[in-house]
Amino acid sequence: MSEYSWFDFDQVDFVTADSHFSHARISELAERPFTSIEEMNAELIRRWNETVGPSDVVLHLGDVALGPIEESIGLTAHLNGRRYLVPGNHDRVSPATQSKNAIERFAPLYEAAGWTILPEVIEGTRGGYRILASHYPYKGDSQESDRHTTHRPRWDDGIPLLHGHTHARDHGPNGHEFHVGVDAHGYAPLPFTVIDAWIRTLRDVEPWLEVAIREAREVIADLDATETSNSDTMFYLMGYNELRTALEELLSALESSHPNPPPNLTQG
Fold first, then answer.
1. Is the separation of the CB atoms in 153 and 123 below 8 Å?
2. Which top-level group of life is the source organism from (predicted)?
3. Which of 165, 118, 117 is nearest to 138 (CA)?
4. Contact assessment for residue 186 and residue 155, using Cβ atoms and an 8 Å cutoff
5. Distance between CA atoms of 142 and 28, rounded to whole angstroms?
6. H/E stretch holding 211
7. 237 phi and psi angles, rounded to 5 deg
8. Rounded to whole angstroms, how far apart are CA atoms 260 and 42?
9. How far apart are CA 80 and CA 259, in angstroms?
10. How deeply is 150 buried, as exposed, middle or buried, from its count of CB atoms within 10 A (0-12, 13-18, 19+)?
11. Long-range contacts of 30-39 (CB under 8 A, 24+ apart)
12. Are 89 and 63 in contact (CB under 8 A)?
């Protein structure tokens, strides 16, 4: 069972983070090449709409807008595409920084501007590979110490994580993490095909179904190797046979839905 809310990454065309619309100091703090808020807002909208089509799906990993929120979120209604927002610490719908009452108050503003608000950490699959996405990396910050640690993914267990928050200007990948913020990607959303290509380079990351099938086979092998006393044999065999049958049925279902089964996948 997934630890985080499940999301369909297969539907996503672009991913981004840290737009910071109307943030008065972001050009200074993140060394952006804009001389005014108005110039930055206009350029962010222009680059977004030159990249994203009206029918495209965009996943935004937080800190979409600051300043007078009615005005700044209103600007984002001009952005193309169907837009999902994983809240960051500067968003007025962030559980990390806002009260429940504040979130309930501000959520309608985001929704009216075309945003679908998601949980702080989401998990799903893309082309059969498991992915996590959050505003926050496992570790790291734009400041000296890590903030909002209880709102981050709990630990790096090898699942690729997409994130923003750091405002790092270096491009993308760092181990199992990929920074998608606009400061690293030309102030525009990043095509998800870039993420697809990166995931395929991670040698220790396997498609989710292959992992599930291998682990189920290991369970069956352990059951086969388990020794029991004579007094427990009858009860053990009854439970064992039921469990083995259920696992075999599960494996058959998984294998039939797997587009490219690896070699020996169906071998016991």
1. no
2. Bacteria
3. 165
4. no
5. 13
6. helix 208-225
7. -65, -35
8. 46
9. 33
10. exposed
11. 30/142, 30/167, 30/183, 31/169, 32/183, 32/187, 37/67
12. yes
Task: Give the total residue count for the chain.
Answer: 268
159 Ramachandran zone, left/alpha/beta (phi>0; psi -120 to 50) = beta
Contact 21, 53 (CB under 8 A): no
At 99-117, the pLDDT tens digits run: 999 999 999 999 999 999 9
The strand pairing partners of 47, in sequence order, are: none
Residue type (1 letter), 164: G
Contact in structure between 164 and 135 (CB atoms under 8 Å): yes
The predicted-structure confidence for 198-256, as pLDDT tens digits, reads as follows 998 887 666 666 666 776 777 777 767 766 666 566 666 666 777 777 677 667 656 55
pTM of the predicted protein model: 0.77
Distance of CA 123 to the CA centre of its chain: 6
